[in-house]
Design a protein that fits this description.
The complex is a heterodimer of chains A (172) and B (625). By secondary structure, chain A is an alpha+beta fold. Chain A is 36% helix and 39% strand. Chain A contains two helices and eight strands; from the N terminus they run H-E-E-E-H-E-E-E-E-E. Chain A is flat, with a radius of gyration of 27 Å. The termini of chain A are far apart. Chain B has a domain of 51 residues. Chain B is 78% helix and 0% strand. Chain B contains 25 helices and no strands. Classes of the chains: A alpha+beta (172), B mainly alpha (625). Chains A and B meet through helix 1, strand 1 and helix 2 of A and helix 1, helix 2, helix 3, helix 6 and helix 15 of B.
Amino acid sequence: MSTLFNVLVLLLISAAAFAVENADQQVVRLDRDVQSLKKDVLELAAEITRIEQQLLYPSDTHINVFISITGDDVFELESARLELDNSVIASHLYSPTEIAALFNGGVQRLYTGNLASGKHRLRLTISGRNSTGEAFKQHAEYELDKTASAGFIEIQLTAPVAGQQMMSFKDR
Amino acid sequence: MHKRLLLPVLWFSAQLLAGTASAGDDQWFKTRLLLGEIQFNAQQGKHLDALTRIDHFNGASENRLNHAIEKLQSGSSLPVMRVDEIELAYRMSQRAGNAVRAVLGDDIDQAGRNRAAFDLAQIYYDKQQYDYAIYALQLIRGELFYPFKQDVEFLQAQVAARQGKFEQAEKLLNTLKSDQRYSAYATFNLGHILLEQGRAEEGYAQLAEVGNFKTQDRILLALKDKANLVLGYHALEQGDAARAKQLLGTVRLNGAFSNKALLGSGWASMTLQDYRAALTPWSELVTRQQTDESVQEALLALPYAYGKLDLYANAIELYQSAITNFETSLARLDASIDSISDGKFLQLLRLHNNRSDSGWLLRLRELPQTPETYYLMELLASRNFQESVHNYIDMVEIQNRLDEWARTVTALQNLVEVRGQHYEGLLTTLDASLDEVDTGLAAANQRQQTLADTIAQINPKNYHEYLTSEHESAMLASLQDLEAASSDLPATEAETSRQRVKRARGVIEWDLMSEYPARLDVISTEQREIGALLQSLTQSRDDVAGLRSGARKSYRGYDVPLQTLKEKLRSLSERLETTLAEQAELIESMAVEELQLRVKLLQNYLVTARYELAKNYDLTSAVDR
């Protein structure tokens, strides 16, 4: 074995070992600090959200509109536009990660807001591409009877099929 | 948190999860949507958002949430994440550990308990808390079956090895060698711990087994390369250069260990004094990524081989090239150290982090104009550094979030103030009006009650007293006066008058007697109608009072909670600033230390290259002479 090779290797070993050990201890301590910080941040976040909901969205007027995807057939969702009583209240352009999350059982909260009791008309327009890459655009309407309890509306999407409605509404 | 504010939320949370008992009901509908939203965020790597939503279910244990999440998955292959998995993904191992520990205390079957204990042990092992890992492993009870049994045994072996309990680890790994999934890993680990014990021959025999594995699996191929690399260098150290060359020659030329293998292969040829053979691997190596440590050593080794072949002109040319390369690299390293010290490396991390791409850190190297990353590949791939960077990125995200929340809380304080200003005057006027209404209603109710009591007392004996009309009473009084006045008349006229009065009184009494039921009915109906009217007025009054109370609740009672939130936010921001600064300093110092090690190495290479260059010039001159 060449002496050149041996000398070069030995030169580095002691310094590297010391540096790594020192950093290890700091990493562990900081990791503990960060975890404790995250725990407190989450508790605080929950408090802020609760108080925000009480102030901004009283339960008697609160509504939430969710979007989910059902079925195994793949399609690409590009955009969604939600109208309430002929006014646009939410619109969204989908990223690939959001689409993947929806296909994996995730549910997107498209809108949260307040609404007076009584009958209202929701209209969702979506656009995208079907499994063969063909562009589609569909809309569906739903009459919502808002009561005094918080309103949860789910709009389930299925893969587009010619002549069939791909959106179904449910509310509680 | 103010109790009044908290209670409805707790109730809501408890109700939501209570709903999971009967599928398809309203509560499960809402729970499913909220849990789905958690999954939506978690699967995009937005763990903070997901965990914030989880904390809304603060009335429920994480285990109950996990049951609900598992219900989401039932009958499908959806890749849902459990609460502890999201916590682990957010690098909150302590909280995830608590969640799993909570499962152990729950009323679940032994298989579920064993799985939870295993997860807990894995968390402790990853965090290098081996005593706790052993404790968690000891909670696994009963007969275990494939493949869980093998998972447990492999973890037991890893923990035992880390604790220096080599005999126990060896026994477990020997058993696992016959398991198809674990065979290569068990053999490699077994070789590793045998080497650690100084049982070189046995250890290298195990690695040789791994080196001979027949596989197409990407990870196993890398393991095989690593085993052959270790074996090759060991043979080189033992002076068996031929064997070393043969072993290093089996390492794939496009794998992660290829540079080291090519370097070692060259040194093996040099040891065999086959200098020409060393030229092949080293000539290939010097064309590779110039910042790689093996490549830089080859820059020095290649002219050394030419020198041994007495090809001094080639050696001189290559030493000159190596010197230029080392000088350029040193200048670049200096620039990188300055750049890191100026905070540009942290800036780069903040700019390019991508939660949906687990390999984003390693891909920093692909960015142009990023000298900071040139020599940090090994560091970037190290667990400690990755943990530190991820924690740093998480804290930057939290810092942004705390700023956003501080603005939200200020906005809510303004909202409460504006609502207060708007409602206070209106409600004071309303209070006075409602007080008047209350007084009027109380008097009316009193009168209505008196009337009802009176009606209840009317009977055939006393109805004259209650049902005589004003006109009839006046007539009766007049008749009484006439009767009294008749006594002053002459006897005949007086008698006639009395008879007339009597007849008139008889008519009135007849009317009263015959109309008594009808009159009683009319007055009872009127009393009931007045009662209903008063009830309706009371309801309207209560509605107004309810609105008044709702309006007051929309701004009263929030000052203290909002101020408390603001103080907590300030305190958390201060803590975050300190930890963030420390984390940033650690990352920078780790990076700078790594670069400084390379500076030292290159400085030594440079000295050696200059010395060897001079030596080769001398040798050339000697040959020329």
